[in-house]
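Progress narrative, work stream C.
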Amino acid sequence: MTITPSRTSGVPGSRIDSGSVGAGRSRPAEPQPSQPGPAGEDPSSRGVLAKAALVTATFSVVGSLLGLIRDQSLARLFGAGQETDAFLVAWTVPEFAATLLIEDGLAFALIPAFSVALAKRAQGTPGDPVRALVAGTLPRLSLAFAAVGALLIVGAPQLVEVLAPGLPDPGLAVTCTRLTATCVLTFGLAGYCSAALRAHRRFLAPAAIYVAYNTGIIVAMFALGGHWGVRSAAAGVAAGGLLMVAVQVPSLLRQLRRRVKTAEGAPVAEAEPLNIVLMATVLLFALCRQSQVLIERFLASHLHSGAISHLNYAQKVAQIPMSMSLMLCTVTFPVVARALAEGDTERARRRVERDLSVAAAVVLLGTAVVVACAPQLIHLLFQRGAFTAADTAATAAVMRVYALGLLGQTMVGVLVRSYFSAGRATWYPVAAMAAGIVVTSWIGAMAVGRYGVTGIAAANATGITVTAVLLLSGMGPRSVPIRTRRVLAELSRPVRAAVIATVVGTFVAARPADPFTGLLAGSAAVTAVFVLLGWALDAQGFAPALRSVGTVTRRLAHAVFH
C-alpha cells in the first residue's frame, strides 16, 4: 500500500522541498550555504525528508490499522468460506487498480513528468508547464479509466470465469466484480491527484486516501451486511474510491490555481502530450507484478473452500512490514526524480543506496517478527466469529512462507522507482518481472497438488526474489548507477541478523500458552537479537533506521502529550 503525506497548516512536513530545489514555489528561494551530510544531502533537505517521513508514518499506521479492522470485519462477518472467496475474486479488480493507478504504474510515469514540469517552472519557462501537463494528460486518462471500468462491468462473467474457474457460486462473484469495477475510474483519478501532489511536495492529502477508502468499506459492511451479505464489502469499495478522490481534489486545485510570474506577452505553454511508451512500460510492469495474485487465486480456486481466504489474510498481514519499509521511498521518489531532472546523478545514487539499506533493515526486522509469531498474530487479529482455530493454523502456516519473499518485495519496490525516476521508457523492469512471473507460475503449478496453499505461497516468494535479483543486477546504464557489489555486501549483514533473530523469537513465542503474551515475548526477543547483531555486524541501514524510529516516536509522543 502506498501511503503518502501532504500539506496542512501546523502539520510537520506541510511544505516538503528537496534541498534547494524550491518545488512548488512561486519564486525561487535564496541559496543558503550548508555542509553536506553523511548521505550527501544538506541538513535542510534531511530535515524536510524526516518531517515528510513522520507524516507518512503517522498516516501509514492509521491506514494499516483501518486495513486490519477491514480484514477483521470481513473475517468476523463472513468467515473464510465460499461467500468470502467470491468477494476476494472480485477484490482482484481494486487490487490491480491500486497497483496500476495509485501505488506503482501511474505514479512511476507521472511523478517524473511533474518533476520536469516543476523544474521548468522554477527555471522561468514561459507559461505554466504544470498546467500544460495536466491539460495534456488528465482528460485522456480519465476517458481511458472510464472505458476500462465499463468494459469490466460488462465482461464481469467472463472475467470471473478466467480468474477462478473452480468457484462453486460464480454469480455472487460476478455481482461483486461489477461493483468493484467502478474503482478503475475513481482509483485512476485518485492516483493522478496523488502523483501530482507528491511531485509538488504536498503529502498530507495523498496520505489520507487509504484512511478514507478503508473507512468506506468498513462502514458499508456493518451498515449493509445484514441485507446484502458480502456484497456490502464490494459496495464499500465503490464508495471508498469516491472518498479517495474527494480528499485530494481541494489540495490539487489550490496548487493548480497558483499564479506563476511570466514575462508580459510570453507565449502560453502548450498542452503536454502523454508519453505513450513510458506509460506502457510502467503499466505493464505493474500489471505483471500484480498478476501474482491472479496466479495464486487461479490455483487456489481448485483447492478446498476457504483456500483463497487463507491466502488473502496471510498476505495482508505479511505485507505490513513491507509497507512500513517503503514509506521512506514514497517520500524520496520525487527527490530522486527531481535530482535526475536536474542532472545530479550522484545525489540520486546516494539517495537510492540509502533507501535500500534502511528499507532492508526495517523489512527484515518485520519479517523476523512475522515468521516467529505467526500463530499468535493470526489468532489475535482474526480468530473470532466465523474465523475458527483451523483457519488460524492454516493462515499462519501460509503467512510464514509468504514472509520469505518480503525482502524481495521491498527491493523490487525500491529498485523499480530508480528505473522509472528519470521519466524515460525502459523495458528491462517489465522483462525482469515477467521472468519472476514465469518462475511463480511454474513452481506454483508443480507445488499446489502436493503442498496446497503453502506451495502457492512458496512460489510467490521465489518468483519475486528472482525479480529483485534481476533488477539489482541490471542497475547502471538503465537506471541510477548504484554500487551493486557494495549494496549486496551490506544487505548480507541484516539478513544474517534476521535469521538468528527468527530462530530465537520462534522458540520464545511458543513458550507462553496465551497468544498475547507469546506475541509480546517473541517480538521482544526478535527485536533485541536483531538490533544487537545489527550493531555487532555494523549493518549500514541500522543507524538511520533506528534514528528514524526514534524521531517518529518522540514526535508522536510530543503531539499526544502536548
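Work stream C, second folded protein:
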Amino acid sequence: MVLKIFYNNDVKLFTDIDSTFCVTKSYGGMMSLQFDISPKHSLYKYFALDGEVEYDNQRYLIKSINERKTVSTIVCELNLDDLKADMFTSFNRTTESFHNICTEILSNTDWTVKNDTLVSKRCSFELSDVTALDILNQCTNSTSYCNVYEYNTKQKTITLIKPENNTEPKGVYFTNELNLTDLNFKGNSSGLVTRLYAYGKDGLSIASVNNGCEYIENHSYTAKVISYVWRDERYTNAQSLYDAAVVKLANMAEPEQSYTCKVIDLAKIQPDIYKDILSYSLYDVATLVDRNRNRSQNYRIVETKEYPAKLILNTVTLSSIPAKITGKLTTINNRITELNAQQLHDRTKVNEIKQDLDTTVLHVSESWASSVNESLFTQTAEGLFLEVNKVVGTNRLSTLLQQSAEDVRIAWNNISEYIKFENAQLNVYNLGDKKLMSLNQYGQDFYYNDNEVGSIGTNSYLNDDSKRGLAFDLNSNSAYMTWAYMSSNDAEAFTMKLTYTAQKLSDDYEKDQLHTGCDLNLHNNYLRKAVLSDWKFEGGSISGTFKGYYVTSFRSDGTANTWKEFTLTFKNGILQKATW
C-alpha cells in the first residue's frame, strides 16, 4: 500500500499507511481519502493544500489539513478540476440526449464518457453559471437522466452507471453470525408521499397521458393518501413529465431507511474462500439480516468505507432510497437570488423555499426578515448556517451557528469573534482569524499572533511517567510567566507578584530569575541550599548579639578537644563588645 505524493517535479512515496487511512466511495461517483500523519514525519512537509496525490490508480487533491500537536488529519478528494475549467453562463437545452450533452460540455477537455449512448431518455435544461461538473451532477437527478458515474482520474474517463437497472440481489449478505460486527439504523417517514400532482411549464399537466388524471399514486408502502404537488418548469412534454413523476414518486412513497454496517470484509481477508460469495461493490443490492427487527431485507449499497490497513474496520451504508441518504444539496437551477422583504416581513404569509434534488426537498416555513431584525437559515453543499441579527438602540447584535463536515463554529459580536469545535477540541479565534486559546485532551493552550505562548495541563515527571501533576508550561519563544494582582484603584494595570522571566524584561527583571513583587514569608520554614548574594539586613545594618563556640585544643587524631564560648554585640553595624 503506497500513496504517491507529487511535489514540484518529484514523486515521494508514503508507505506508513495505518488504521486511520480510509477510502470512501459515495453514491454518485465521488471518492475521498482521509488519514492521520505526525507533523514530525519526514514526508509531512510535502503535503500541501491542493497538492496532488495518487492511491490505487486514482488521482486526488489535498483539500483539508487539520494540524494539531501530535497528529495532522489530511482529507483528499478526486481531482476533477479539469471539469471545472469551462464556465457556461447560460445552458438552455430542450429534449437533448445525454450523449449530446456530454459531447458538448467535454469538448474542451481530455475527458471522455463511456456508456453514454445507453441512456435513451431526453431532458431539458435551464441552467446558468455552471461548469461541466455542475452539469454532470445535474444529470444525476431523478428529474433528469437519473444516472451515476465512476470516475477514472488517471485515464480521464467517466463511466455511466444506471443503478436502477440492477434491482436483483447480488447474493452477498451481511449477518452478525458471519461478517457483521455493528449495526446502526436510521429511519424517517416525514417526507412520505403516496399521491403526486405533477406540473410543467405554463401549467402543463400529465392528464393527457394519464387517462385525464393530473396525479399518479404509489401505495407500495401504505394505503393512506398523502398528496404533494411537484412543479418543474423545465418540462414542456407531458410524457416526459409523467415518466419523471413516476421515478420521483417511487422514491417518495417509501420511508427513508438506512443502515450503517461495520463489516468484516471476508472477501479480501480470505479471498480463496469468500471472494465469489461475499465480495461487494458500490451500487450492489445486498441482503441484510436484521436480528433486532427479525427481518431479512434487500438494500442498495450507497457508500463504502475501506481501511486497507485494517479491513475489520470497513463500513457499508445501505439505503432504501439512495438519493435521500447520499444526495448532495446543490443550488443549480434552484438558486434563490433574492427574497421579497415586504412579504417576508408579513408573518401572515408563509414563504416556502424548495430545493429539489432527486427526492431531497428542503422546506423553510414561516420565514420573515426586515432591515432591522432578521433570522437567516442557509443550507449548501458546504454545510448549515444559522444567523440571527437584532438592533438594540444603536448597536447591532448578531450570532452565527455554522456546521460543516470539518467543524462547528459559534460566532458573535457582528460575527467578529468565534469559537470552533474541531477534532475533539475547542478553539477561540479573534476578528483576524487568529487563534487565541485551545482546549483539548492535553489541557489549555494559549496563543498570540498564531504563536503558542504556553499551556496549562497535566504532565508527568521526565524520569517516572507514573508521577503525574498539574503543569504550567511556558514555550521557548515566550518572555515571562507571572501571578499578578489588580489593585482596586487601577482597573487597567496588574502588578506582578511572583514572576519567572525567560527573557530580560527590564533592569529590575533579569533573565532566568524568579522575582517577587511582595514580601516573602516562609512561616518559620527553612530556606535550603541557598547561595546568598546582595544580602541586606532590615534597616540596612547588623544590630544584635551573636553567640558561638571556637576550638581551643585538638586531639592527636585531629578532632576537637576543648572549646570556649564567644559573644559578639553589634549596633548599627559597629562591633560594640566581644567576649572570648
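Residues 497 and 519 are 9 Å apart (CA to CA). No further action is required on this item.
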